[in-house]
Amino acid sequence: MPYLISDLCLPDPELSAGVSAALRAELGDEQVVEGVNITADSFYGAQGRKDACFHDDNSGVMAEVLRRHPEAVSMEMETFQLLHLARSCLPLGNMRAAAAVVNVANRQTGDVVGEEALRAAEKDGGKALLKALASLPLVPAATA
């Protein structure tokens, strides 16, 4: 398989807990799923999509990702790099990062979120994220 599957890059634990709590308060427990997000290098080959115009060798990529990371609950293209940049920023602990995603398409079932539900999740989720950020101290507890 021509895909590199790296180790996990974890979010800031305090910020991640704050994001989760704010999302649960705004959206309800049933709308929030915590787990590992997988970051792919593209929307197509690395996410297991098939397209006759591209030779992706991706028939087993999703199965291999789930074998290595069975706790995975989502896949998109940006989060790993943002978490890695935050963890690499000097001085260490100076930049904090966490993530939340709005599920638009379920690759396993083929289900797609409707337009109205998507807009509501983006608006209410965005409001929750701003509340989470505003509630945290500017200096992480570990560096204070």
List the helices and strands and how they pair.
Layout lengths: L12 H15 L8 E4 L21 H8 L3 E5 L2 H10 L26 H21 L9
Parallel strand pairs: 1-2
Helix pairs in contact: 1-4
Keywords:
144 residues, two-stranded parallel sheet
Concise summary:
By secondary structure, the protein is mainly alpha-helical.
Apparent shape: globular
Question: Hey, roughly how much beta strand do the residues contain?
Answer: 5-15%
Count the beta strands: 2
- The percent of residues in helical segments reads 25-40%
Number of domains: 1
Query: Could you tell me the radius of gyration in angstroms?
Result: 17 Å
Find the structural class using helix and strand composition.
mainly alpha
In angstroms, what separates the terminal alpha carbons? 45 Å
Strand order of the largest sheet: 1-2
State the order of secondary-structure elements, H for helix, E for strand. Answer: HEHEHH
Indicate the low-confidence ranges by residue numbers.
none
The largest pleated sheet is described as: 2 strands, parallel
Query: How many helices does DSSP assign?
Result: 4
Overall pLDDT level: 86
Polypeptide structure, described:
The protein has 144 residues and is mainly α. The chain has one domain (13-134). It contains four helices and two strands, in the order H-E-H-E-H-H. A two-stranded parallel ribbon has the order 1-2. Helix 1 crosses helix 4 (115-135). The radius of gyration is 17 Å and the shape is globular. It starts with 12 loop residues before the first helix and ends in a 9-residue tail after the last helix. The model has no long low-confidence stretch (mean pLDDT 86).
